[in-house]
Amino acid sequence: LRPDYIKIDMELIRGVHADAYKALIAEKIIEIARSLNIETIAEGIETPEELAWIQAHGADYAQGYLIAKPSEPVFR
User: Fold this and answer.
1) Which among 22, 23, 42, 72 is placed 20 to 30 Å from 9, CA to CA?
2) Which residues of 2-39 are buried (b: 16+ CB within 10 A; e: fewer)?
3) Which pLDDT belongs to residue 56?
4) What are the CA-CA distances from residue 45 to residues 42, 52, 75 (Å)?
5) Between vectors from CA 40 to CA 38 and to CA 49, what angle results, nearest 5°?
6) Per-residue DSSP letters for 27-55?
7) Three-state secondary structure of 1-18
8) 36-71 pLDDT tens trace
9) What is the pTM of this model?
């Protein structure tokens, strides 16, 4: 298995800045992904503190209500 992306579930991201247990797991996932040239997507970002944490720890992409609310896809 050699994925291009690893998505970090919102249950792990929610409150990651204030929970040492979640933080260590998320940090190691990002670290392993980086060493294997796999990009990471952190989902469920709802607070500026969560966004700051994932930026500081090197996640490649972020998604969540803080950034943009879901919308209907536009098909052509």
Assistant:
1) 72
2) eeeebebeeebbbebbeeeebbeebbebbeebeeeebe
3) 98
4) 7, 10, 26
5) 155
6) HHHHHHHHHTT-EEEEE---SHHHHHHHH
7) CCCCEEEECHHHHCCHHH
8) 999 999 999 999 999 999 999 999 999 999 998 888
9) 0.86
Report, as an integer, the average pLDDT of 29-36: 98
In the block, tokens 């050699």 appear at 2
- For 5-29, how does the pLDDT look when each residue is reduced to its tens digit (9 = 90+)? 999 999 999 999 999 999 999 999 9
Q: How many C-beta neighbours within 10 Å does residue 60 have?
A: 15
Tell me the two tokens of residue 57: 């720890």
What single-letter amino acid sits at 45? I
